[in-house]
Predict the structure of alanine transaminase.
Amino acid sequence: MQLQKLNIILLLTAGGLGAYSDSRGMPGVRKEVADFIERRDGYPSDPELIFLTDGASKGVMQILNTIIRGESDGVLVPVPQYPLYSAAISLFGGSLVPYYLEETENWGLDVNNLRQSVAQARYKGITVKAMVIINPGNPTGQCLSESNLREILRFCYQENLALLGDEVYQQNIYQDERPFISARKVMMGMGPPISKEVQLVSFHTVSKGYWGECGQRGGYFEMTNIPPKTVDEIYKVASVSLSPNVPAQIFMGLMVNPLKPGDISYEQFIRESKGVLESLRRRARMMTDGFNSCKNVICNFTEGAMYSFPQIQLPPKAIEAAKRAGKVPDVFYCLKLLEATGISTVPGSGFGQKDGVFHLRTTILPAEEEMPEIMDSFKKFNNEFMEQYDDRSGYSRM
Amino acid sequence: MQLQKLNIILLLTAGGLGAYSDSRGMPGVRKEVADFIERRDGYPSDPELIFLTDGASKGVMQILNTIIRGESDGVLVPVPQYPLYSAAISLFGGSLVPYYLEETENWGLDVNNLRQSVAQARYKGITVKAMVIINPGNPTGQCLSESNLREILRFCYQENLALLGDEVYQQNIYQDERPFISARKVMMGMGPPISKEVQLVSFHTVSKGYWGECGQRGGYFEMTNIPPKTVDEIYKVASVSLSPNVPAQIFMGLMVNPLKPGDISYEQFIRESKGVLESLRRRARMMTDGFNSCKNVICNFTEGAMYSFPQIQLPPKAIEAAKRAGKVPDVFYCLKLLEATGISTVPGSGFGQKDGVFHLRTTILPAEEEMPEIMDSFKKFNNEFMEQYDDRSGYSRM
């Protein structure tokens, strides 16, 4: 590890960050990522199967582009989902095959839903080639349990699906009951044939965690059980745009290989990083409790990631008013919220929802000391909104 | 301009480079790019039509992806060409329509060749949608003249082609007779209908010039006469991967808005940047003269860019020896050169060539003081190689 650090220092002093790197990223940093994965999961990882990318999104796009040949190729994507997946699948001309997360089961994943989604897609002539999981979930904030991950892997094995594990929020966990566990660790633990045959690509980033360096655009993906010929093709495509940006590669190295006991700033590093995560944990709790104290709002606890995704049960009158205004109901609600309070949220329809069910997504990132005031402001708005559109109320201020 | 600088300083002090920017890049830097283009060309430029990218390659890929719907869409690409174009067109499933640059005309572009290429493509059922020019040329090093650019623009207008102007080497010019002139400047000077109707996208980068900060991955493209709906679509696609990396955006701002007379380090900046470019000019001359002093080697002068692309006239015996070794003849030559001297070059076949004509590409970037020794070493190798495979020589050391 000292050698890696030395390599980076040499790089910085001899010529700096000015040159292209290997199209897969600098070997020294890829080695650091492999060591990080091994420490995390307890199974060795091969730097040759780790590619550094300009953010995790670019990695996801590259892998989806490799998988999708045309519109008859389908990819299973959770709904609600982070819109990167719908956008990229559409850009590459493939078919999105949705599977619904169960809100009443704390956004858990029911393998029977998966089977149904695959059967429906096949009936339409779609070859389902891969499945995406986002763990912890965006926008839903759930952490997948080990038993759930086992079911998913068994399903991928049976159905011959590659598994794409979007694990960018692995450091952002706000409860102790269900710690993050990587798809790779579960897979390795299951032994052959699953550990030897399921094709898995896992994604990570410097944009989240307690560092949140999104502007750097740094990420990696790690491939397991991907045929060497495919790895070569992915390398070839990566080389078309020469190399990921070099400063973000250095960031990635620092992220996966942080300070250790005995390092000069170790105590401060632990204090600050723990401080950030503990504050996020308190904010997740404040926000969930705040939403759940509001009329017609129900919200699962944010187990991980950075989002709260409350369901807003809009009265029929509000839905009618939205229609009259030419707006999707949740967009109508979010715009009213913005106008009344200045709080900016994303309507749930941007992430996909079941018909007639409405949500909004907000981050848990506002400053902790401002959180009570924000939730009070939301509650006041929501009360007035619900009162205004209450079926029993005789008037409308619209 | 002071305001732009202030914006950047505020950005750096308030929160740093950690946040995503607008998916098109920071407004302040896009304004600086627009001002740079206006100063360069004498025509105003609109920051809303300038997108910052992770290097010029990513911008080229994004525009090609926008243009190509399927294999019946063709893009005119020069041969020899920088392989980004062939790779990206193939990745997006389109058709490359080659047009040959004329080596005996100093790699100039003959519009009659263009017409022939388009006619042949149409005969095959291909809709030719766009034309790529690389000016200054990579790997060929020529600078297009104003009259040649006018012909190209007239041709694009007549044939309804979008023009993609890869102008990443615009700062790298090594002669005074033919300074760099942008496609946009020529187009604007031609007046309507061409200036109002030809769709032009121009590319630039922080990876070349006298700075050469390739590892940062910074670039931009500027769109002219692109329909607003298309610009919106390009914006939407850019937003899928959130934003270009932020440090490289700052680099781009510094590149297009360099120090001015009166700034504290201005004299040193001029001395250093001029020093780099003058040294490159001397190296271009040494390399061209060196190649032309070699047996069976002819080489056009590197007017611009960073490359020398000599033609190697391989004797029939050498071609036969290559065949026996299972190698393409120029690859055979380049490998022998590498083994004998340690000089690493790229076989011309990687860039496309006419049948039976062989080249190699090398950069003019070796240190100036090492250049005489390198050229001597090349000459010695080449002499021995040519002697060994001379038709009149009775022996072979192979």
